[in-house]
Amino acid sequence: MSPTPASPESTDTAANTSADTPDASDLLPPQGAPPAVLLQVLRAVQARCQHIPEPVVLALAARLGLGPAEVRSVVSFYHFLSSTPRGRFTVYLSDSVTDRMLGSEALLERLCQRLGVAEGQTRADGRVSVHRTACTGLCDQGPAGLLNGWPLTRLTERRIDEVAALIEADTPLAQWPPDFFEVRNPVWRHELTLSHPIAPGLALRGFAALAQAQGLDAARTQAIATLRDAGLRGRGGAGFATWQKWQACLEAPDAPDAQGKAITCNADEGEPGTFKDRLLLMAWAHEVIEGMTLAGLSVGAREGFLYVRGEYAFIAPHLQQVLAERHTQGWLGANVAGTGQAFEVALHLGAGAYVCGEETALIESVEGKRGIPRSRPPFPVDRGVLGRPTVNNNVETFVQVAQIAVHGAPWFRAHGTAASPGTRLLSIAGDVPRPGLYEVPWGLSVAEVLAGCGVTDIAAQVQAVLVGGPSGKLIDASQCQRRIAYEDLPTGGAFTVFGPQRDMLEVARQYTRFFAAESCGFCTPCRVGCVQLVDTADRLVQGHASTHDLDRLRDTADLMGRLSHCGLGQTAAHPLLDVLAHFPQAVLPRLVPDVRAFDLEAATVPHPSRTWTPA
Ligand SMILES: Cc1cc2nc3c(=O)[nH]c(=O)nc-3n(C[C@H](O)[C@H](O)[C@H](O)COP(=O)(O)O)c2cc1C
Ligand code: SF4
Predict the structure, then answer these.
(1) What is the second-level CATH architecture of the domain 91-184?
(2) Are strands 145-147 and 150-152 parallel, antiparallel or unpaired?
(3) How many A from CA of 355 to the centre of ligand 2?
(4) Separation of 566 CA from ligand 1 center, angstroms?
């Protein structure tokens, strides 16, 4: 699945586009390579040439057996790919709500001004371009951004000036101060997961021992039964029972291509405010891959795909190293842990598209295509990657899978609630004294979580908490006794706090814009609905909307919720609806009188010359 260099005898002269464009021919796959390599090759070409030159498009189309339009459509889909040249230094500043709260708008203006470049444009000398991007997964150390794929953290005016100076001096990135790129993972609370690293291979050895003693089928049945007894539910947001997914995939007939089944690990983590998978990928990669491998052995998959969001490309070298180590140790390869089963894991990087976190869009992206969600059924467990039955789980789910395999179901069940066993990683950002990572048992109240991150007086310090990101639930301070649990407030791991000084309507507007920017445009309710929501939000903020607009907003939200093709469109109206429901004081004073309530008859002064009496 990974790109392979062009063979020396290949005849096209793909990448020599002009004297100014670097040669990319060594990045192209050989003739007849599977089209699934497309996205990874495009990423590599973009990194070298700062765009995808048209001759590369044509060469890729010819070699992969695709139409040029198909290749161009992939380029146009992903934010980090471009058909026109971006700067040799390409800067993306995060435009997420929490970065804005920390002053990112002013920093972006300052950087553009220092460098003499307009936002979104490439400077005439080709050296630099400055863009905004939705969210970089660094909300706990914002304002943040990316520079040629490397994270820029804790930006200040001073640092922005230094960044501009280093770019002007054409300083190679290797010579930049390393602390510019430092990503910290402050963990403020450890529970079961973050206190129990497991030795690489331990869970697999247990599986192998059982398979040897009682046979492979018994080991598979046991692995899935343990997950059932533990009550593990997926940590990616929807909370689906992990064992049921695995069981369905195990029972699904193999794909006709005889390539077996597949496992995908969803490390797209695009929900604004979520960054817990970043920690796991950076510090718990062995456990993540151990969980994937256990899934592979349990359902009979030979291939796994670790799909990591493009914003986390800086973690890729570490992940590759861990994969290599596991190969050397026999935890991956042709005979995993002596079970006689083969399992390989390939790393796939996204290229900037939130919707690729939706599991069927992720599968499309793994196949090298635009990340447009598929129709379901068939579900991935029946037809997933390249038509193979596929288990897709979140990063945190896989870590907990490995831990449950080692420590057992009762160990896991001893935490949390009956309906939500175990613990949950929370990425806490916004107006809190200690933003960062927290592991909490399910069932803790929002107030208890807030107390843990330094909030001493909820009434004075907290106006709102967004539980689960913009597609989740926005609550006000009076609801802080509610519990973080599937039976009350489920969450995919984001937890963003807003102090009393925040304009909640403006916050909702920013989240609505995020959804509109990230809508893949495939289905009309979402494509058109998102634009209408943004329009309504703009008019509300500007004081041009009336109660009529609120009625229209509710109608649009209802239609989007019922008819959108995937979760993005189904939840895009949540921020505005929640602000209307819980923060009417942010909306109602801005309304103008409803034009429909204007009585034209009563307002018109009768004039004798204009009166008309029927005969
Ligand atoms: C728009 C959208 C974005 C999503 N993003 C993610 C994501 O970044 N990570 C994730 O694990 N699940 C995400 N999901 C949920 C996945 O579709 C899927 O339910 C999840 O990966 C299943 O894994 P789990 O069972 O371990 O939770 C997203 C869903 C939607 C609709
Ligand atoms: S709901 Fe939105 S993101 Fe999902 S398929 Fe439709 S247009 Fe694409």
Answers:
(1) 3-Layer(aba) Sandwich (3.40)
(2) antiparallel
(3) 8
(4) 11
User: Does the CB atom of residue 235 touch ligand 1 within 6 A?
Assistant: yes
The CATH number of 1-85 is 1.10.10.1590
Short-list 586, 431, 587, CA closest to 97: 431
413 lines ligand 2 (CB under 6 A): no
- Average per-residue pLDDT in the chain? 93
CATH code for the part of the protein at 202-413: 3.40.50.11540
Residues 159 and 151: beta-carbon distance below 8 Å: no
Terminal alpha carbon distance of the chain: 85
Q: Residues 251-292: pLDDT tens digits? A: 999 877 767 899 999 999 999 999 999 999 999 999 999 999
DSSP state of 88: S
16-49 pLDDT per residue, tens:
445 578 899 999 999 999 999 999 999 999 999 9
pLDDT value of residue 21: 81
Q: Which segments within 59-164 are labelled E, that is strand?
A: 89-94, 128-133, 145-147, 150-152
How far, in Å, from the CA of 38 to the mean position of ligand 1?
23
Task: Reduce the DSSP state of residue 128 to 3 states and report it.
Answer: strand
Thinking of the domain 504-594, which architecture would CATH place it in?
A: Up-down Bundle (1.20)
Which amino acid residue places its CA nearest to atom 4 of ligand 1? 357
Span 476-492, average pLDDT? 95
Q: Is 266 in the pocket of ligand 1 (CB under 6 A)?
A: yes
The CATH code of domain 423-498 reads 3.10.20.600
What does the block give as tokens for 363? 């599968």
Confidence of residue 14 (pLDDT cuts 50, 70, 90): very low
**Phi-psi group of 61: left, alpha or beta (phi > 0 → left; psi -120 to 50 → alpha; rest → beta):** alpha
The pTM assigned to this predicted structure is 0.93
Q: Which ligand 1 atom is nearest residue 245's CA?
A: 25
C-alpha separations of 418 from 109, 400, 413 in Å: 51, 17, 8
**Cα–Cα distance, 412 to 48 (Å, whole number):** 47
